[in-house]
Structure formats: C-alpha cells, structure tokens
Write a structure and sequence with these properties.
single chain, alpha/beta, globular
C-alpha cells in the first residue's frame, strides 16, 4: 500500500488448501472482486492445489458455483476469472505432488514462471510439510524471488513460532514472507492511521494526559462452528488475542512513523510491544481472566455449551473468552490501562476500539443536575458497521441545565460507497509485493512474549475454568481487572 519499490507482479498464484473453507469463503470471492475491478494483472494465473478428485474443468465449474452463490457473480467476468485456474490434485506431504506442481507451473499456458505466490490456506500443522516439499522440488529457488503467504496462528507459543520462522528462513528471505492478519486489511483499521496522524484535533489528545483507559473488543455471537480439532487446542488467547487484538493495540499505541513505509510502520508497532509491562507469574490473575461458554439463549435459538460441542475433549478447560489488562510503559501511555477482551457466543458480533477520556480537572457543575457527567469517548467501530466518532456533552434546549451526549461523526464511507473485504486489500498487496499491512517476525515474537506468562500459568490450571451463559456479554468476574470503580465494559458503539 505505501511501499515505493514495486516488484514485478507474479505470473502464478498457487493456493494450497483450495478446496477448504478459507478459500471458498474468503479467497475466491476476494480475488473475483479484484478481477471485477480490473486489478488482477493480465498474465496472472492460479493453480488450485487440493485433495479432491477433480480436473481443470470440474474445478472451474466449482469456482463458478461458489461465486454465483456467494457474490452473485455472472457473465464474461466470471468466465474470465475461472479460466485463470488450473487444478492439481495432491497430498500436502507427498513430494511427488510438488514435482507435478512444478510441471504445471511450466505449462505453455502459464509460461516459465519466474515469480510465484504460494498461499498456505491450510492448517498450521501442515506448514512444515509444504515448506520443505517446495524446496525439495526446487520451488523455493531462486532465493529472494517467490512469495509465501502464511495464515495465522503463527505458532502456538514463542518456541514454536521461532522454530517455524527458522524453517521459513532456511528457504525464504524475510521480505518473501507475508504473514497475514486479515484485521489489518479492514478499512477502519487502516483509517485509524489517518484519523490519528492527519488531524491536529485528535493527535494532541492521544496520550496519558487525556486518555483514562482504552478498550479493545472483538466479540462473536457464534460458537466454534465445527472447528473443535483446532479450537480446543488453541483457545481464545491464541486464536484472537495474541494476533488480532494485539495488532489493534499496537496501532492505537504506536508513535508516528518517519515515513509510511512497511519497515518504518512495523518498527513503531514493535516498539509498543517491547514497551508492554511484563506480567509476573504471581500477577496473572490481576491481568487476565478466562472463561468458557455454557448452554444459553443466542437470539431466538437455544445453543449448547462448549463442552457439548462435537469434538471437544471431555472436561476441557479451553477458554472461549479472555479479558486482559496491559500497560504500555513509555512516555505517551505510562499508567493508562489497555483492556482487551474477546469471546464466542456473546450477545452480538462486534469489533471496536473505545478510548475513554479523563474527566475535566474542575467540576463546575457540582451544584447542578450535571454533577455526575458521563465521560467523553472516542469510538472506532470496525464491524459490523464502519464508523468513527467523538462523544461530547452539550446542553439540552430548555430552562434547566440538563445535558445530552452529542456525537461528532467522522465516518469515512458515504451511503453509495461499497465496503471492501479485508482480503481484497491484502491479496492485492501480496500480488504487488507490498508488505506494509503484513506482520514481521519480530512483531510475532514480541506478541508471544507478552502473552507467554499467561499461557504458562494457565497450562498449570487444568481443573477449573469460569463459565458464562451463551447469549450475554460474558462473565461479570472479568470486571475485577478494572482499575477504576466507575469503569465498565462498553458493549455498544
């Protein structure tokens, strides 16, 4: 997005796990929309790598059926997009499949390919096999040319993340590795940079002198959706907080970069992670709280508890909800708590960043009905709606000194402008070789360092976990994290 040096676009884009949910629900619709917008290079072709017994024609028919259903695709654009695909059946751990892949990449239609994107839309457990087999077939060479896209989670702890990184760097340079976190592709998240650094009104307030605390919430109203084989080993901390929420924290907390370039931007994010106050073993309970949903009412539907979901281990203590408190010990944020929470089977799906401002230093309205003024807020809604606004007080019309909250709306999308899916932005950046919205390994490593004490402590507590009823806003016990008695979770934009 911001990089000045634009490398050559790839001539091939290989999707490992092309028959999986990620490809069907996110990648194919996003790539089609880029086709529709005329953003895909004319010579770019796709190779779908999967296990199903299909040929090129049946795969293209499958692509058309998926896109017709999901995005109402039709006409010549759909035909043109589907014709870009070849299909290769193979097992991820079969070296011969990669020899066959190399042959496909050299077919007359595709030409001798000098630049390939390898997208790993697969389970993290399969990363190692794919990386090693790519090298075994000579597809990692020449070094420094191809690009490899790795989905989160990047490791399950700091040690596994370091091992995966060492494996990647054995065959690929860091600038070839695109660690994707789709939250960074959301337009509201990107607009946070503009909101902060392009407005003289906002930036002077963005510090410990004016901000009381920060809340970052990513709530989901769904359960684990048949993903027990992954989720029961990961939990909410690994699945969401260590990556998505930590990325949002760094964007809120970072200093202005010297230039809008990938490394300059990431350098500032890493500084935030390095400044987070370490959590000692004896203070984990004061900084983090976990819980698990039980049966309850989600909307009009009665839903099962986590331990009754298919595939979940008996008496599992995997957390489906986590709330945590962090302090950034630097000049800007010293003493300001950052409260992060995420959970499944909550009341509604909602992602937002909310900054509560401090009260005015003098209570001029002590003798009036305004004695207990509500605080001012800066609120950035990421989903389901995209909006940014300030909440301030104004006097209500009338004879009494009554007040009401007025919103100064800074939303950036008009009613006739269609939202972009995060994957559209990120996939286009992969094709163009721009790493600005992707994650460098030192970001991954420091994020694991921040949460590692919590993981290690919880690994020893295997006999009990708090619960909360599905369909609510989570356990009340999470309120123990708050520093102030007047602090509570903000559940609405």
């Amino acid at each position: 997005m911001f990089d000045q040096e634009i490398p050559l676009p790839p001539c091939n884009f290989v999707i490992f796990g092309a028959t999986g949910n990620l490809a069907s629900n996110k990648l194919l619709p996003a790539l089609y929309r880029l086709e529709l917008a005329g953003k895909l290079p004319e010579g770019l072709n796709f190779v779908a790598f999967g296990r199903r017994e299909w040929d090129d024609a049946s795969w293209r028919d499958n692509v058309k059926a998926i896109l017709t259903k999901k995005v109402n695709a039709e006409g010549p654009t759909l035909d043109r997009f589907a014709s870009r695909f070849d299909y290769l059946r193979g097992e991820l751990n079969d070296p011969q499949a990669y020899v066959d892949l190399k042959a496909v990449l050299c077919k007359p239609k595709l030409g001798v390919c000098s630049n390939v994107v390898f997208y790993l839309a697969i389970k993290p457990n399969d990363f190692s096999a794919v990386i090693k087999n790519l090298d075994g077939a000579g597809l990692s060479k020449p070094r420094g040319l191809h690009r490899i896209v790795v989905e989160k989670p990047f490791g399950v702890d700091i040690e596994s993340a370091q091992m995966l990184n060492q494996l990647l760097h054995r065959y690929f340079d860091e600038k070839q590795v695109f660690r994707i976190d789709h939250y960074l592709g959301k337009e509201t998240v990107q607009n946070l940079l503009v909101f902060r650094f392009a407005n003289t009104l906002i930036e002077p307030l963005w510090n410990r002198n004016y901000i009381d605390h920060v809340q970052i919430t990513v709530a989901e109203d769904v359960g684990i959706e048949m993903r027990a084989d992954y989720y029961d080993k990961a939990g909410a901390l690994r699945d969401m907080l260590q990556n998505h929420l930590m990325q949002l924290l760094t964007l809120v907390g970072m200093e202005p970069p010297p230039a809008l370039e990938a490394d300059a931007l990431i350098d500032e994010k890493v500084k935030v992670l390095r400044s987070i106050r370490p959590i000692s073993k004896r203070s984990v309970h004061a900084h983090a709280f976990r819980a698990q949903y039980k049966a309850g009412q989600s909307g009009a539907e009665q839903v099962a508890g986590y331990q009754d979901e298919a595939g979940v281990e008996l008496e599992s203590v995997t957390e489906t909800y986590i709330a945590a408190k962090f302090y950034i010990d630097n000049w800007r944020w010293r003493g300001v708590p950052f409260y992060l929470r995420t959970g499944k089977r909550l009341k509604k799906s909602l992602s937002m960043i909310a900054l509560r401002l401090r009260h005015p230093p003098q209570q001029l309205f002590r003798e009036t009905p305004l004695e207990t003024l509500e605080p001012n807020w800066i609120v950035l809604s990421i989903q389901p709606e995209e909006s940014m606004h300030l909440e301030i007080h104004a006097k209500q019309p009338g004879l009494d000194m009554d007040t009401r909250v007025v919103r100064l709306n800074a939303s950036f999308r008009t009613a006739d402008e269609n939202p972009l899916d995060a994957y559209e932005t990120l996939l286009l950046d992969v094709i163009e070789g721009d790493r600005t919205l992707f994650i460098r390994f030192d970001e991954v490593e420091w994020a694991w360092r921040v949460v590692d004490p919590i993981l290690k402590y919880w690994a020893q507590e295997r006999d009990f976990i708090h619960t909360y009823a599905a369909g609510g806003w989570g356990p009340l016990e999470a309120n123990r994290l708050f520093d102030g008695e007047d602090t509570e979770w903000r559940n609405e934009v």
